[in-house]
Design goal:
Layout (H helix, E strand, L loop, with lengths): L11 H15 L4 H8 L3 H10 L1 H27 L12 H21 L1 H4 L26 H15 L1
Helix pairs in contact: 1-2, 1-4, 3-4, 4-5
Length: 159
């Protein structure tokens, strides 16, 4: 790959190349693959984003569209018919390939956008048995004055 010519923020050539990358991303192509197709170093693109906040904002939007495309692609892959093997049965290698493609996309989505695509984890108790926080204090390590304060506060609560 040839050395990338230096451009300045707002340079039309830079903007055109970056927008070509964004268009590829909107079609489900990763930024790295898009850069390779365009003969652009991925690190150069990253430098442009660090130098140009408008391009960085466009990248964030294109990245979101890329991930949405990836999420829809999961459904397409899952709905693809699986071929048959030599004996007329379902091709288990093809099934495993589809499973791997889906799992890889799900993993990337969950890591990149956990609020949107991650598994929701809720820590809660049962309705009749809610979670309770209990704290135990080793009183043998407390001074007599501290113990007296704790006892006085407890007596004041009960009064």
């Amino acid at each position: 790959m040839s050395r990338q010519p230096k451009t300045k923020p707002g340079d039309p050539e830079r903007t055109i190349k970056a927008r070509q990358v964004f268009e590829f991303m909107r079609q489900g192509v990763s930024a790295l693959s898009a850069c390779k197709k365009l003969g652009l170093k991925h690190s150069t693109l990253a430098d442009w984003f660090n130098e140009d906040k408008d391009l960085a904002a466009e990248y964030v939007r294109a990245r979101g569209e890329f991930f949405d495309f990836m999420a829809e692609e999961i459904i397409v892959i899952a709905d693809e018919p699986v071929g048959t093997n030599d004996r007329g049965g379902m091709d288990s290698a093809a099934v495993n390939k589809q499973r791997l493609q889906i799992d890889a996309r799900k993993w990337i989505l969950a890591k990149a956008l956990p609020k949107k695509y991650g598994d929701r984890v809720t820590l809660a108790g049962e309705e009749d048995s809610p979670l309770q926080v209990k704290q135990t204090i080793d009183t043998s390590k407390l001074s007599t004055a501290t113990l007296a304060e704790i006892m006085a506060a407890k007596d004041a609560e009960q009064a």
